Amino acid sequence: MQTWGEMKEVQPLVSQMLMNSFNKGRISHAYLFHGNKGTGKREMSVLFAKNIFCKHRKGVHPCLECRDCIRIDSGNHPDLHWVEPDGQSIKKEQILNLQKEFTYTGLESNRKVYIIVDADKMTVNASNRLLKFLEEPSQQTTAMLLTENSQAMLDTIRSRCQLLSFQPLNQLRIAEKLVDQGVSQSNAKLLSELTNNLSVAQELNDDEWFANVRKLVIQLIEVLLNKPNEGLLFINHQWMSHFKERQQLQMGLDVLMLWFHDLIHYDLDREDAIVFVQEKEKRNQAALRWSRQSAVQSLSFILEAKRKINQNVHPTLVMEQLTLQLQR
């Protein structure tokens, strides 16, 4: 996401607010970008920094090609400072070093910008040092604090920043972005149903463990359709050996739910909503086995299984009971 046009497609409200601040010459001394991972906070901070430093900007649009823009992309702009967690936290010394840097005159201009990534991970001492920094802002200084958990930050820091909330991406947008990045259409559709976090979707797509989740769900459906007497055997010998953790099992059940959602979409002629687009023959066969009513009931069974997993009921017992319910 290099341009304001691209950012507006992902975060229309935040993009418009920041563009308006440039148009009106009202750049705040500190911003707090709050939102889930993968919602564009880092990309937005980079674009905003380009707006501040680009000498060839046309209105609110940086040129993206000048020396300043290129150095911002490479992380080498002398007046743009990044602070990221050192290990598990951002430490007091990092903020002290930042403050020291800001005592020097800007090398390229009178402006200075700093971006703090995972700002909620500042230690108490680091937070207090930053607070003093924010309490005496320079007109030539702009801070951007990025966080997934603004509630974990000091109220006094939050009150001194302009809070901008980054909204979760919608399913269609995530699917489109994944396809643009080389993910197959079928996988993109599945991933966008499972998460509204683009980064998480990308990680799942690259995860060999997740690649087998889809296969196991289809294999379970095939067993239930063609060899129902072997259902429990499949669960004990193949399913449970792959889903070793409760969180993994929840993911498997989520994908299984999407299969039964597909049966309902198929019955209602909602072809565009179908996720397992490549399994047309199996879906046709399954539609003869599970009516729309029984598909809805199957979803209820799966939801109940997910609830039991959260309540620490033994996972194998939960899956065995679910398999018997789906066989009826």
Detail the topology: elements first, then pairings.
Blueprint: H1 4-10, H2 12-23, E1 30-34, H3 41-53, H4 67-74, E2 80-83, H5 92-101, E3 112-116, H6 124-135, E4 141-147, H7 155-158, E5 162-165, H8 171-180, H9 185-194, H10 198-205, H11 208-226, H12 231-242, H13 246-267, H14 280-289, H15 292-310, H16 315-327
Parallel strand pairs: 1-4, 1-5, 2-3, 3-4
What does this protein look like?
- The protein has 16 helices and 5 strands.
- The chain has helices at about 5-10, 10-25, 40-55, 65-75, 90-100, 125-135, 155-160, 170-180, 185-195, 200-205, 210-225, 230-240, 245-265, 280-290, 290-310, 315-325; strands at about 30-35, 80-85, 110-115, 140-145, 160-165.
- It has a 5-stranded parallel sheet, sandwiched between helices.
- The longest helix has 22 residues, at about 245-265.
- The mean pLDDT is about 90.
Could you write a compact summary of the structure shown?
This protein is α/β, with parallel strands linked by helices and 328 residues long.
